[in-house]
Amino acid sequence: MNKKKEDLQKNTIDNTKKAHMTTNQGLKVSNDEFSLKAGERGPTLMEDFHFREKMTHFDHERIPERVVHARGFGVHGEFELYESLEKYTKAGLFTDTSRRTPVFVRFSTVAGNRGSMDIPRDVRGFATKFYTEEGNFDLVGNNMPVFFMQDAIKFPDMVHAVKPEPHNEMPQAASAHDTFWDWVSQNTESAHMVMWLMSDRAIPRSLRMMEGFGVHTFRLVNAEGKSHFVKFHWKPKLGTHQVVWDEAQLINGKNMDFHRQDLWENINKGNAVEFELGMQLIPEEDEFNMDFDILDPTKIWPEEDVPVQIVGKMTLNQNVDDYFAETEQVAFHPGHVVPGIDFSNDPLLQGRLFSYTDTQLIRLGGPNFHQIPINRPICPFANNQREGYNQMNVTKGQTSYHKNYLNNNQPEPASPEEGGYEHYDEKVEGRKIRARSESFKDHFSQAKMFLNSMTAHEKQHIFDAFSFELGKCKDLGVRQNAVNNLLNPIDREMTEYVVDKIGVELPDTIEESNYEKSSPALSMANTPSSLETREIGIMITPDVPTEKMLTLQQKLEDKGTAVTFISDKIRKIGDDVMTETFDTVHSVLFDAVIILKGHENLHPEAVENLEIAFKHKKAIGFSTDDGDIFKALSFTADDKGVTNIDENLKQYLEDVKSHRVWDR
User: Fold this and answer.
1) Where are the membrane-spanning stretches (predicted)?
2) Residue 121 DSSP symbol
3) Which of 146, 205, 356, 632 would be 241's cystine partner, CB 3.0–4.6 Å?
4) Backbone angles phi, psi at 663, to 5 degrees
């Protein structure tokens, strides 16, 4: 158990142990069935302090949900450094390889409320709190490395546009509506981010199988004061994988908690979730050597130009004990840094440095949210801040100001040699002006580069995503503006495809970006693949021998996969294996499927599951006793990714490992 988890458990009330019920003041309660009344049928008395305390707490159980990133799921873990980065930074977590730094990570969707589904087409939040010996460092990022705007003053507008429309509160957790596409078509700096949002990155297979990015350009500063610009990356050890859009919609209907259940169950099984931390580094003197502005949050640094240096590994291995106390009350802030990490002049980052504290003040009831156990640093902290809502500390002493004589000027500031934080000594001067640098004006080159980097099936998914999203817009002018202002300046082929689908006019002028560069690192076709933790659904007919099922299960689990048997009703297989039913699970909830058929006919639900798995390009394995398995199916054993597992289980597992049979 890591240090932060131990610290949290000091505040844990274990209701699994025998104990008397008490009030919040510790008074033992003799009755929790009835309120105090004047006679059995009389009115409830105001003096019933137990009733009033219980009801008052219930009335205030809910805090305002986050405006964005409301639906989240958190998990504990630790970070280990591979080798010292003292050349670049003096931050202890990046220089001391003997440390194991506790972390808490909160994954989230952006647009939906707390009750929305897990797999909308959306950005995913990827926020990490490092509990370091110098204080908390929060890396507050997303699963996409860019964002919709270049300046934080536009952030409220973008969120208002993507949220349910205010006149009817629809649709929930979706960008496929008029106000979103109206906004992005009028704010073309969003073009690059929209390409990511329409890509498969927006519908991840699992929270364990998506990348994370710090988004902004930060600084690392070493002990000598030398500065490097840095972008942070999280690389999943299992690779970056996705579902397809039709599958996502079905999953949301079958299990709207699909992502959080996947993460919870894998950690409960002991399947540690691992991400490697990477950094892209640019010396300060090379700030202007790229063909774009490195401070622009709508731009990436192509990995082929600025390689990602892998520096450490984060292992997520402990679920929370209390969702509200930990996941819901955790407060992240990109301004929580430690010595050796500093900010750049990225105008979106600069705005976020204000916004996050302001948000927590209303969500968590005042300025003392840092005292909530999940937010408390593991190192000591002391200052002259006092009182306020939810003050939990008892601070001794006569003084609460700096400087003071009465308390020997305690607490006193720390020198840099003692670990005191110093901002980077950057020269800044200029006229006060509301404007944007000319170096931020190119909105389409990297959007084109993203498309250039995709495989054929990834491109088709993007084309279809634009067609779906814009097809949901009711206003013809919004659709036309999106085509004219966003699609056409990126790619003519994409524009022609979408125009044909959504009933608008093809723009007369061709203003397509001629940017020819590509970045193979952007394609998920180049991601690692593994059988580890892949879920295989095995459909059976009732006459399949138990021994055959258990033998297959053992072979598959030996390769690292997880197996679920599916039948027409719950059946016991062996001593401790029970089947699921077609009522409770579906092929969309699995990475791949197998059908084991005896002499009995396939259940109609099995036929439907197999057809949908084939449509979603999943690996399909089969074994049959009478050879007529394909009579009820639209595909055959000759189709790609359809394998007789009795003859070639190895090939079937290769197809599973590849995630999809894209060339089917």
Assistant:
1) none
2) S
3) 205
4) -95, 15
CATH 2.40.180.10 domain range(s) in the chain: 72-371
Q: Where in the chain is the domain with CATH 1.20.1370.20?
A: 441-524
Other beta carbons within 10 angstroms of residue 474's beta carbon come to: 8
CA distance 659 to 653: 10
**97 beta partners:** none
This prediction's pTM? 0.94
**How remote is the C-alpha of 27 from its chain's centroid?**
43
Q: Tokens for 475? A: 């206003």
- Catalytic residue list contains 648: no
Do the beta carbons of residue 112 and residue 172 sit within 8 Å?
Answer: yes
Range name among 101-110, 176-185, 347-356 with the lowest pLDDT average: 347-356
Which residue type, as a one-letter code, is found at position 660? R
Q: Which of 204, 185, 174 lies closest to 490 in space, CA to CA?
A: 185
> Per-residue confidence at 400, pLDDT binned at 50, 70, 90?
confident
Q: Could you confirm whether domain 529-657 is CATH 3.40.50.10540?
A: no
DSSP-derived 3-state class of residue 644: strand
Q: Which of 50, 69, 177, 241 is catalytic?
A: 69
Element spanning 499, H or E: helix 492-502
- Alpha-carbon separation of residue 529 from 207, 237, 516 (angstroms): 15, 9, 29
Q: Tell how far CA 409 is from the center of its chain.
A: 45
- Name the token pair of 65: 């949900």
Catalytic residue among 2, 76, 136, 142: 142
What is the third-level CATH fold of 441-524?
Hemocyanin, N-terminal domain (1.20.1370)
Structure-block tokens of residue 145: 């490395």
Give me 372's structure tokens. Answer: 């909530």
Q: Are 371 and 393 in contact (CB under 8 A)?
A: yes
Mean pLDDT of the chain: 94
Rounded-to-integer distance, Cα 247 and Cα 127, Å: 27
Q: Which amino acid is at 506?
A: L
Beta strands in 57-121 (DSSP E): 72-81, 100-109
HSE toward the beta carbon, residue 252, CA cutoff 13 A: 19
If you average pLDDT over residues 254-267, what whole number do you get? Answer: 98
Q: Is 69 a catalytic residue?
A: yes
Question: Average pLDDT, stretch 223-239?
Answer: 97
**Which residue would you say has higher pLDDT here, 54 or 345?**
345
DSSP secondary structure of 132-187: ETTEEEEEEEESSS--S-SSGGGHHHHHHHHSPBTTTTB-TT---SHHHHHHHHH-
Sign of CA dihedral 339, 345, 348, 354: positive
List residues bridging with 107 in a β-sheet: 73, 126
| Least confident interval from 5-19, 79-93, 523-537, 613-627 | 5-19
* Cα dihedral 20, 21, 22, 26 sign: positive
Rounded CA separation 259/205 (Å): 8
DSSP 317-360: EEE-S-HIIIIIT----TT---TTEEE---HHHHHHHHHHHHHH
Instruction: Please answer whether residues 585 and 611 qualify as being in contact, where contact means their C-beta atoms are separated by less than 8 angstroms.
Output: no
d(CA 316, CA 4) in angstroms, rounded, equals 13
Residue 383 in tokens = 């200052």
Q: What single DSSP character describes residue 204?
A: B
| CATH 3.40.50.150 holds for 72-371 | no
